[in-house]
Design brief:
alpha/beta, UDP N-Acetylglucosamine Acyltransferase, domain 1, six-stranded mixed beta sheet
């Protein structure tokens, strides 16, 4: 015979079971397997160890032991990444009424993506080295490149974005978003994995930065805390999912703290966008946009004029 506590607990369990039946779209029970969130987080952290050996975890390497350690790590990442990609692609196929078993080329596709990613890592290190250089040159408070890797949230967010973007461009679902949202929770920097980012991006401080899916950021751009590169009308965007909804930031642009730039606009190269500016239109190259006084209208100055 159930006690009062037992009856109350059973009532709660029954209500939960009913909730699971009522809202199946926000759970994952008894259907195609998906990788656990913590396994993706562990994977992305291990990838960062390959990108920045000796700086992510308390590990000692020398050039005698390094090939062995890197070999073990690379093999581990290959098999785990391959498994995770296979799971999410099979899940995506099941959502579309198909099954992986029906496509004999599926296993080759998954293995190819995993291999391509590992082969991309040396190139990715070159790109991240330019990001580190941009921070060192742009932030007078930075002391060394190793300090930037160890301590700067902007570089952490950008490095994981670049991993996620590689997978996103190969139509891998779920995994890229889990990676970037994990960094979002750690750094306060929200970069959609679909964003296009060039070389030498400097994110200073970073907290509160939001960069939307179709944004394009070209080379040698500087962004400060609280910057939003967002979209205008959510309803309009939902009706046209392939539409470019977010800004394009051309080369050598600086966007200062709290600025908001919305819509498919272009910020011309060599421009400076001042703090707390609100923009919904394009700006010519070599322009300056700033607030003249607190609460006053914005002013746009073009160096061409």
């Amino acid at each position: 015979m159930l006690t009062v506590q037992g009856k109350r607990l059973q009532k709660t369990i029954d209500a939960l079971m009913e909730s699971y039946r009522k809202h199946p779209e926000i759970e994952h029970i008894g259907t195609v397997d998906l990788p656990a969130k913590d396994s993706i987080i562990s994977l992305v952290e291990d990838i960062q160890v390959l990108l920045f050996p000796g700086l992510i975890r308390q590990e000692s390497f020398d050039f005698l032991s390094l090939p062995h350690v890197v070999g073990q790590q690379t093999v581990s990442i290959f098999y785990r990444l391959k498994e995770a990609i296979e799971l999410v692609l099979c899940w995506k196929a099941s959502q579309e009424g198909e099954f992986c078993e029906e496509h004999p080329e599926f296993g080759e596709q998954v293995e190819s993506i995993a291999f391509e990613f590992l082969e991309y890592i040396p190139e990715l290190r070159d790109i991240l080295a330019e990001d580190v250089d941009a921070i060192l040159q742009g932030d007078p408070a930075s002391v060394s490149k190793r300090e930037i890797v160890l301590a700067y949230p902007g570089l952490q967010a950008v490095s994981v974005y670049r991993i996620a973007n590689f997978l996103h461009k190969r139509s891998v679902p779920l995994i890229p978003r889990i990676m970037t949202e994990y960094m979002h929770s750690k750094t306060g920097i929200d970069i959609h994995p679909g964003v296009t980012i060039g070389k030498g991006l400097m994110i200073d401080h970073g907290t509160g930065i939001v960069i939307g899916e179709t944004a394009i950021i070209k080379d040698q751009v500087r962004l400060y805390q609280g910057v939003t590169l967002g979209a205008l009308s959510p309803q309009h965007s939902l009706a046209n999912p392939g539409l470019k909804r977010h800004p394009t930031i051309e080369n050598n642009v600086i966007v200062y703290a709290g600025a908001t730039i919305l819509g498919d606009v272009v910020i011309g190269k060599d421009s400076v966008i001042g703090g707390n500016v609100w923009l919904t239109h394009s700006i010519e190259p070599q322009s300056q946009v700033f607030l003249k006084d607190a609460g006053s209208a914005q002013e746009v100055r073009s160096k061409r004029s």
